[in-house]
Amino acid sequence: MIGVGFRYALRERTRFTLTAGGLGCAVVLTVFLGGVYRGAVHGSLSYIEHADADVWVGRSGSWNLMRASALLGGAAREQVLAIDGVRSAEPILSALLPAAVNGARRTLLVIGLDESASAGRPQLIEQGSGVPGPGEIVIDRAFARRVDLALQEELQLAGRRLRVTGLSRETNLLVTQYAFVRRGELLQILGLVDQATFLLVSTDPERATEIAGRIASEIPEVAAYDRATFLANNREEIEAGFLPVLWAIALFGLAVGGSVVALMTYAAVLEKRGDYVLLAAIGAGTGVRFLVVMQQALLAALAGALAGLTLLLGLERLLPALVPEIEFRLELWIAAAALAGSLGMAALGAVFPARLATRLPPLEALRR
Amino acid sequence: MRISSALRFAAVHKVYEGAVPVRALSGVSLNVETGAFAVIEGPSGSGKTTLLALAGGLERPTTGRVHAVGVELTALGERRLAAFRRAQVGFVFQDFKLIDVLTALENVAIALQIRGQRRNLARAKSRELLARLGLAGRASARPATLSGGERQRVAIARALVSEPRLVLADEPTANLDWATGEQVVQLLRTVARERGATVVVVSHDPRLGRHADQVIQLVDGRIVAAHAKEAVA
């Protein structure tokens, strides 16, 4: 019995394909956006995670790397180094700057590093060096691919010509990418003297939270965060920009998918009305008829979700070549959530047609 | 000797409400004996199908009482009526009403599976009954590939496989040629008797009366004649 719905679904191939296709599109849309979001979060946080800083110290009010614009004066470093437990404090300077290359204009989140910096360098280097020298720049590999730039070629950063000496990985923020230059060079570009956006402080990792608290309380007008807090701050910044849109589109996708199922399943019930009536006449309970309808919706949802996820797997491999800036990460939990969401919306969409199937009067079996 | 009744109508009226109420049955009282093969004859619009619907618990009378295999149907709610049909009644329809996505075997087995029988057991019983009805070689066929007579035999197998105490057949020969109709009715009668089922057939075909233990004639919602076997013969 418990297979009649599956048979209906597979027998009506066009309807099944349309339903599964509609659901698959909804899954692709939702998972793709989720995957891009995860990629952006990963790209943003990976640099911070690998920056070798136990504590991030910035000007009061600077609570994340992407949006920090207030600067610390040169004296701040000495004040931080004077705090008990601080082993080192490396200044980095960050700024969003226009880059021109091969006729294209882009904006880069440029990090200025000191020559001797042990912290703040890009740790994941695909080609070349992660330590920029004078007149040199390390750029994100996705950016390099997008603008067709190779090692030893040049780009203009805020009007200054710099030679590419390294390509980094996991430094892609989707809307922009990290780039690394000498801090002195960046100071000159910005017309500054010895300022920094953050000090990357090394401490005993187990005392990082305590030391961050002491830095913040003992040095005026600075904020200090241990690594976990700073990561959370940056995640919050990304989420604030991404998640509302993402949720809206995901819900819209789910609603469209659910509507497709509702419409197709409703049509299927009307078409097979005689069979449901027969089942009612021979004593099949409402649960059985409900299940027959649900089977059709759930099978279509399963097929649609699996087809969508397969497509996304292919997309994950193709995207770096097609659209390098987009770092798409198809994570297992997102795939599982998409599958569950797809089944859920299919079940929801099929409730009305299923209820219709359970309410058809058995007496109709005797009508000709 | 007390003869038990498989189907009993007591002063049953059925009126379909609407802008113009339609009186389908008017004071119908009848008894069909257990194990009998009863035929209800009458022209179109005489109330035969309504009578069958009431007998099978597909709807309720406006007034009067319907007892089927010892159960007063007028007292049952929808769920219990469905349970009653599932357990006690087998239906044979004029247009066969086979599910086209299922094979002949699956169409029969479905009657057992909705009663909770396991798939393998249901299939084994269904296969056996199909063989008894001469369809051993057609078990895997879809309804669309079966002849009219074969389809009706599958429908009979579906009606009988759960060993119901009451089989209700609505114009079972109407879509069949004369010879096939004869064969199908003979089979229905024989196999139902083997299984101890009471059969009530409604038909406007007077030839079916030849097979009947009881013939009830219905005109304009009223019984105008009822004969037992001896009288029919």
Describe the structure.
The complex is a heterodimer of chains A (368) and B (233). With 368 residues, chain A is α+β, with helices and mostly antiparallel strands. Chain A contains ten helices and ten strands. Chain A has helices at 4-11, 13-49, 75-81, 141-147, 183-190, 208-218, 227-271, 273-281, 286-322, 332-359; strands at residues 55-59, 86-101, 104-113, 125-128, 136-140, 154-157, 160-168, 177-182, 198-203, 222-226. A six-stranded mixed barrel of chain A has the order 2-3-8-5-7-6. In chain A, 48% of the residues are buried. The mean pLDDT of chain A is 90. Chain B is an alpha/beta fold and 233 residues long. In chain B, 33% of the residues lie in helices and 28% in strands. Chain B contains seven helices and ten strands. Chain B has helices at residues 48-55, 78-88, 104-113, 119-132, 148-160, 178-194, 229-232; strands spanning 5-16, 22-33, 37-41, 63-68, 71-72, 89-92, 166-170, 198-203, 214-219, 222-228. Chain B starts with a strand and ends with a helix. The mean pLDDT of chain B is 90. Classes of the chains: A alpha+beta (368), B alpha/beta (233). Chains A and B meet through helix 1 and helix 8 of A and helix 1, helix 2, strand 6 and helix 3 of B.
